[in-house]
Amino acid sequence: MVEKFKVTPWEVSGKIDYDRLIKEFGTQPLSSHLISKIEQHARKSHHFIKRKIFFSHRELDVLFKELDQGKEFALYTGRGPSGHTHVGHLIPWIFCKYLQDAFDVEMYFQITDDEKFLCKPQLTLQETNALGYDNALDFIALGFNPKKTFVFVDTDYGKTLYKIAVQISKRVTASTAKAVFGFTNDTNIGMYFWPAMQAAPCFLPSIRHGKPIRTLIPAAIDQDPYWRIVRDVAPKMGFPKTAAIHNVFLPPLLGMNGKMSTSEGEHATIFTSDDENIVRKKIMKYAFSGGKDTVEEHRKHGGNPDIDMAYQWLRFFEPDDQKLQQIHQDYTSGKLLSGELKQILVDTLNTFLVEHRKKKEQARKNLDQFILKD
Ligand code: TYM
């Protein structure tokens, strides 16, 4: 039986079949040939590609061909500020940092305070704007190059973005927007226009530099519907089609279905602002375990890392392959108990987050160096 799941920019639910998504969305799997191309150009690998956390793409092969011919590209990604940053949001951003270091390219980061105001009835524009600047600090804290990184909040950079968005919007019909995004007659008209705003930064590097510069977008696959629209429009506006590289979702602590998000409930979402105690409590209490019911049984039969959220999260947050492999072996053999495995995740995440919060404080002082405003 084919299991039901849903992946849209606003809803991710069910047990996601990523191979099926590739077919349904019409993207390409990230082939081993392309993986070695990235590694070769970057001169080092990243555990996100080795572990297929980035698994699919659009036109990355074309981008590499152009790179070999000496053409430039720019990175683009973003955040919809509906709350505090959680550790799932960091996944594409960590990969962006790796790519910026490797290719020494410009990085554009859009913060969509307008989108979250339009689609979340309870939020005011002032709230989404303020959250946006806080979320920006989480991005900057990852260590982006201030000379080549541009962060902009939509309503404060609207004059520039609107000029691009309005050109895009003229070339997209309401029926396309309905088909691609599932809009209905009850959807507010702001949302009908909104996709043009998320599409606009795809052309921003070309416009700022006055020459064609292809953008590459690292993001989870839920954002892909936007790239379908913008890729249709690009040649009509004389810009290169945007390329994309897609990551899978960090799963919810409670189990494999869907993505980790605040809608799962704040209690089971780990935010970058959660202190060490909260992180420990959340993981110990909510991380779904693949362990056996009793210690005796566990020692005898071992645990199942495929369904164990502490292990699944370590695939994202423990970069050392050997360490991860040892954990896998010890857990499946029964040597490592479920509580001990959770403790490893608690320590790994806390080490990262304590450091991250220090860098976030530093970023507060340097924010102006990154911000684009009209
Ligand atoms: P938002 O704020 O929902 O998500 C920000 C980024 O995080 C990714 N993401 C995840 N990745 C891994 N595991 C998860 N559990 C998880 N949850 C979210 C999202 O795919 C996204 O890349 N409309 C956008 C903001 C935006 C944007 C962009 C995103 C504007 N321009 C360009 C990507 C690229 C939004 O609300 O993202």
Describe the protein:
This protein has 374 residues and is of the alpha/beta class. It is built from 17 helices and nine strands. The protein is globular, with a radius of gyration of 21 Å. The protein is 51% helix and 11% strand. The chain binds tryptophanyl-5'AMP. Tryptophanyl-5'AMP binds at residues 9, 76-80, 88-89, 91-92, 110, 112, 115, 198, 217, 219-220, 222-223, 247, 249-250, 259-261.
**Could you give the order of the helices and strands?**
EEHEHHEHEHEHHEHHHHEHEHHHHH
Summed up, the helix count is 17
Characterize the overall form: globular
The rounded Rg comes to: 21 Å
The termini sit apart by 53 Å
Main beta sheet: 7 strands, mixed
Percent in strands: 5-15%
Given the helix and strand composition, which structural class is it? Answer: alpha/beta
Helix amount: 40-55%
- Strand elements, count: 9
Main β-sheet, spatial strand arrangement: 3-4-9-8-5-6-7
- Average pLDDT number: 95
Bound molecules: tryptophanyl-5'AMP
Write the topology of this structure.
Elements (H helix, E strand, L loop, with lengths): L4 E3 L4 E3 L3 H8 L2 E2 L2 H11 L4 H4 L3 E5 L1 H9 L4 E7 L10 H14 L3 E5 L1 H7 L5 H16 L8 E5 L4 H12 L4 H8 L7 H11 L4 H6 L4 E7 L3 H14 L5 E5 L28 H11 L8 H7 L7 H9 L3 H13 L4 H29 L8
Parallel strand pairs: 5-6, 5-8, 6-7, 8-9
Antiparallel strand pairs: 1-2, 3-4, 4-9
This protein binds tryptophanyl-5'AMP.
Tryptophanyl-5'AMP (TYM) binds next to strand 5, helix 5 and strand 8.
